[in-house]
Prior knowledge:
This protein is an alpha+beta fold. The chain has helices at 31-36, 47-70, 77-86, 91-103, 109-123, 128-137, 142-149, 154-169, 177-190, 195-204, 211-229, 235-248, 253-265; strands at residues 2-9, 16-21, 24-30, 44-45. The protein has 13 helices and 4 strands. Strand 1 (2-9) and strand 2 (16-21) form a beta hairpin. The longest helix has 24 residues, at 47-70. The model has no long low-confidence stretch (mean pLDDT 89).
Amino acid sequence: MRTVTKIQQQKKALHRYNIFLNDDYAFSIDEDILVQYRIHKGMELSKKEVEEIMEHEDVHRNYVMAINYLSYRMRSTQEIRTYLRQKEVSSSTIAEIIARLEKEKLIDDLSFAQAFVRDRMHRSSKGPRVIMNELREKGVKAEIANEAVRQYDEENQFAKAYKWAQKEAKKKSQHAVSKRKDQLRNKLMQKGFASAVVSAVMSEIEIEVDPEEEYLRLEKQANTFRRRYEKKHEGYELKMKIKAALYSRRFSSTLIDKYIEKMDESR
């Protein structure tokens, strides 16, 4: 047995105390552990009791570290677990800390997921599928992620997707109108919006077409194809190559025929 001969409050961390046994420094503990074990001067401690105190001190210290990590924003259970592992906390201690945090309602994956979805809905142009994947990457179980994403209903999806697509549609582009619509549709799908929502949005989006500007866009690309193909082709075969390339860029057949006619006139 060893006797507590001195309890000294630390100067830089007032919530921590240095414990001296038989006049020698033995260990330091948090005030909560000091109170929990009612450590006082003259108290006798066995080796086993000291080990138990130190185990609880280790758990408490890492628990406080987890609380500090949570203070910046809500975290998923898996994020807390990963963070503590990176800090080289033992698996048994992590399990104990996670259990305590759950009991105290300081971590709750459903609440975390719901808040995460709301944040993405208001601060990004992402659809529910992408948000679902982000939740899964954070270790949230599929059924919980599904439950949280339900709040992102089709009405909210449409409003978000339409606002984004309308803004994009106003940007200048070198592509044909049909090609631009395809691009918008594909991007909305990539952002994770439901197919029905994407179709509804695209039926409402209109891209203003200036025939002269559209033809200039076609002409620019057509001339590039012409320079590329006329090295190996000529006549009818060259025109078919150019037409096929322009069709793949979704230009209208009327404008394509207009360019081909001008090719014939220039000969």
